[in-house]
Amino acid sequence: MAAEDGAVTIYNSSAITDANNKKNPYSIKVGLAQMLRGGTIVEVNTPEQARLSEDAGACSVIISDPPLNRGISRMSDPCLIKDIKRAVSIPVVARSRIGHFVEAQILESIGVDYIDESEYLAMADEEHFINKHNFQTPFICGAQTLGDALRRVREGAAIIRIQGDLTGSGNVAMTVKNVRSVMGQIRLLNNMDDDEVFAFSKTIQAPYDLVAQSKQMGRLPVVLFASGGIVTPADVALMMQLGCDGVFIGSDVFNCSDPYKRVIDIVQAVRNYNDPHVLVEVSSGLSDLMAGLGFGEDRIEQFGSGHGGV
């Protein structure tokens, strides 16, 4: 075990726990996050979209402002959050800006189930992330590398969101690249001795005890979701087969001709990601459903365009 900033990390078979944080025990927050494993989190703008997502089998909804809003992206209106919380019985996630602990305090007082310290919003603090151990609500944090992920875990994140494309282009390549990078580095850990693990932790600028625990567990010590460019049931199954515990789906899903069927198909792809027969069924008729999604050629990176597949 190792101590840092007053939090003691104890190795066990499932996840890290900090023994001396009795007010907001991290183990409870990690346990709450486990409830979302194998699920789909759908981005919604209205209570109606939230109800549709719940009826279609989503494990949670994440709130974002309607796309008509422009300018600096901030925390959603508390009135919208309250309306959506009243509309559904599944967990509700709301976003705060990176480093904006007051927005997080507001979201916790509203009673959201999870807080996403999100790079989708404008950054409030360019130097510091929120100290998530100060909150009772579990946090979700984005990451693109193993070092990013473990630093966010040290700060108190209970769920890591491997982040890909942020533009809404429908391009899953960046997400695949980042998921493969994280999973590949964890596999490399399995062949390292203690001295090599220590050196590796310095290389990726991550806490040694969390790197050692990732080696011990063969995975991140917290729930791992993927986000960015995930549009089709095949994209969803790809993320799951690469080792993710679940996926985030953008609100563009509601722009198609039958959003209810689209969400159901994605939920089924998460639950049956290794069953090709189910994947055939949920992928059938996809071109008609996606006609309204607006992924035109100007929004999708073309293969071989010189961007290295990103």
Order of helices and strands: EEEHEHEHEHEEHEHHHEHEHHH
The description of the largest β-sheet is:
8 strands, parallel, barrel
Strand content: 15-25%
Give the integer mean of the pLDDT values.
86
Q: Output the structural class.
A: alpha/beta
Question: Approximately how much helix is present in the residues?
Answer: 25-40%
Radius of gyration (CA) equals 19 Å
Per DSSP E runs of 2 or more residues, the count of β-strands stands at 11
Span of the ends, CA to CA: 39 Å
Unreliable sequence segments: 1-15, 295-310
* Order of strands in the sheet with most strands: 4-5-6-7-8-9-10-11
The coarse overall form would be: globular
Number of helices: 12
List the helices and strands and how they pair.
Blueprint: E1 2-4, E2 7-10, E3 17-18, H1 26-34, E4 39-44, H2 47-56, E5 60-63, H3 78-87, E6 92-97, H4 101-110, E7 114-118, E8 139-143, H5 146-155, E9 157-163, H6 173-189, H7 194-203, H8 208-217, E10 223-227, H9 233-241, E11 246-249, H10 259-271, H11 276-283, H12 286-289
Parallel strand pairs: 4-5, 4-11, 5-6, 6-7, 7-8, 8-9, 9-10, 10-11
Antiparallel strand pairs: 1-2, 2-3
Helix pairs in contact: 2-3, 2-10, 7-8, 9-10, 10-11
Features:
3-stranded antiparallel beta sheet; 11 strands; alpha/beta; 310 residues; globular
Give a short synopsis of this structure.
With 310 residues, the protein is α/β, with parallel strands linked by helices. It has helices at 26-34, 47-56, 78-87, 101-110, 146-155, 173-189, 194-203, 208-217, 233-241, 259-271, 276-283, 286-289, and strands at 2-4, 7-10, 17-18, 39-44, 60-63, 92-97, 114-118, 139-143, 157-163, 223-227, 246-249.
